Amino acid sequence: MVSVSALGQAGKTAVGRTGAAFKENPVVVEIQKEWLLAAREGDVDAFGRVVDAFQKPVFNLCYRMLGNPEDAEDAAQESFWRAYQGLSKYDFQRPFGTWMLSIAAHYCIDRLRRKRPILLSLESLLPEDDAPDETPNPEDQTHRKQEQEAVQQLLSALGREERAMIVMRYWHDMSYEEIARSLKVSVGAVKSRLHRARHTLAERWPVHSLSPVSPGGGHE
Fold it and tell me: Which tens digit of pLDDT belongs to each residue from 152-165?
C-alpha cells in the first residue's frame, strides 16, 4: 500500500522546485508587496510583474487539477484576473502565494464540477523544467515509471476537493491551516478528508509498489 511518505516523495518528484516557489526571502517579499500595493491602486503593469512572479506555480496547480495545458492556461489566467479584482480584500498579513493558490484551486474545483471526471495525464505530474535524465539507470527508470503511473491512477480516484487537498499538501507543502483557509473549511475537515483520501490511495496502491508501508505513517 502507498505510504504517506511515498506520496510526499512522489509529489516532490513531480513538483520539483515549484513546491518552494512561495518561500521567498524577505527582500523579495517586500518588493512583491510594493507591486501589490501599486496594483491595488490600479497599476496594471505592477500586477503584471506579480503575474510573472507567480504564474508558473499557479499554472502547475491548475495543470494537475485539470489535466491538460489548454484548460490549465485558461484557469490560470482566470485565477489571476479574479485575484486582481479581489485585491481590495487581500490581507497583507497572509502570504500572497497561498492566497493565489486558493483562488486557483477554487476555480479548478468549480470547473471540475461542470465536467465529467478527468484522468490526469502522466505529463501533468511533471513540471516543464524537470525533464527526466536522458541516460537514467534502467532500474531507476523502471521504479520512476511505476511510481508515476501509480500516482496518475491514484489522483484520478479522488474527488475534486480531496485532489485539491492532496496537491496542496504534498505538492506545495501547505499546512493544514493554510489548506483550510484556502478551501474555506475547518482544519478538522482538512485532516479528516486527507486521512480518508490517504486510505483511498492506500487501497488502490498497486501490490507491486516499492514502498509497502501503511497509510498512517510518514508526512502528517
Answer: 567 777 888 888 88
